[in-house]
Amino acid sequence: MPGSIPWGEITAGIVHEINQPLTAAQTWIQGAQRQLRQGNPEAVAQALGSALVQTQRIAELLTRFREHVTEERVDLGEVDLASCWQQVGNLLEHERTARHIRLTHDFSPDARTLCADRLWLEQVLHNLLSNAIQAQQERAAGWVHIRSQRNGEVIRIEIADGGPGFTPDALQNAFMPFYSGRQGGIGLGMTLTESLVTRMNGTLALDNTPEGGARVRLQFAYHGSQENG
User: Which of 102, 139, 146, 187 is the most buried (most CB within 10 A)?
Assistant: First the structure.
């Protein structure tokens, strides 16, 4: 398995990833309860619908992580980057709006389709966007910008934010299991993210923008479908 991560760390990482949509589902259900008490049936239906999306995501993630842990053969196909990013933005809508995070994008017309597993790509983007949001939680408002460009048969993706950026220690140790630059973090999100990217034959690198914010660079094959095992 990429990185030769011990089984205990893999399990802890999966629990960490599942906890995100589980927490979101609980938040939406609590919101539905409040709206029900206030007699707002339309808001109740919307909140329950959002909670259902999150619980469905948990089921899908469990299936994919079983494939990941057992290293089962994974079919990679054409995935639309823009629609994945939009889905991730919707999943993290509550966190974004609560912390006034603005999302912008610049997808080159020839750099939208890449070779990946859609759910895994969404989870990678979900982790990276979640990290960017949390990094800016002390600011009145923040932003996250994603851009993509094609270089031959390769799609290059950059995700930058308006936060304080990676510390030198984080740049050196971010992919180490149980390393976390955030108080209360268990330090497995980025480890599992790198592992998922590697399983999709991609690469992941970290640095900071000239302005000082964090920047994540991803690279995937441009098109076609293939199998990875």
Answer: 146
- In the predicted model, is pLDDT for residue 77 greater than 50? yes
Give the neighbor-by-neighbor strand order of the sheet with 214-221: 101-107, 142-151, 154-161, 214-221, 203-208
How far from the centroid of its chain's Cα atoms is residue 28's Cα? 19
Give dist(CA 167, CA 86) in Å, integer.
Answer: 29
Task: Tell how far CA 92 is from the center of its chain.
Answer: 10
Burial zone of 210 (CB within 10 Å; 0-12 exposed, 13-18 middle, 19+ buried): exposed
In whole angstroms, give the CA distance from residue 197 to residue 202. 5
Handedness of CA 172, 176, 182, 183 (dihedral sign): negative
CB 100 within 8 A of CB 66: no
Residue 24 has pLDDT above 70, yes or no: yes
d(CA 20, CA 39): 29
Predicted confidence (pLDDT) at residue 188 exceeds the cutoff of 50: no
- Rounded to whole angstroms, the Cα distance separating 70 from 218 reads 25
Which CA distances in Å does 21 have to 17, 95, 190, 201? Answer: 8, 12, 17, 26
pLDDT at 55: 84
- Report the distance separating Cα 218 and Cα 194, nearest Å: 10
